[in-house]
Design a protein that fits this description.
about 80 residues, alpha+beta, 4-stranded mixed beta sheet, 3 helices, 4 strands
């Protein structure tokens, strides 16, 4: 299975939705909370060109926000 990294922060309802979506399907992911992990924030901004949460990294794909249809496509992929 492709590694999945989820960038989150506290008080982010879409972050919680993505976590529930993945967990509900038994999909393992690495959560990186940018509010407490400076390296996560640096990766999010500089490596993945995002300033928003949730940001999902699935293989080489970057998905900003929660789009269940696209997420299903990427997971099937």
């Amino acid at each position: 299975m492709t590694k999945i990294v989820l960038f989150t922060q506290p008080g982010c309802p879409p972050c919680n939705t993505v976590k529930a979506f993945l967990s509900g399907r038994g999909i393992e992911f690495e959560e990186r909370d940018m509010s407490i992990d400076e390296s996560a924030l640096q990766d999010l901004v500089h490596k993945y060109q995002s300033r928003s949460t949730p940001t999902l990294i699935i293989g080489d794909e970057v998905m900003i926000g929660f789009d269940p249809e696209r997420l299903n496509e990427l997971l099937a992929g």
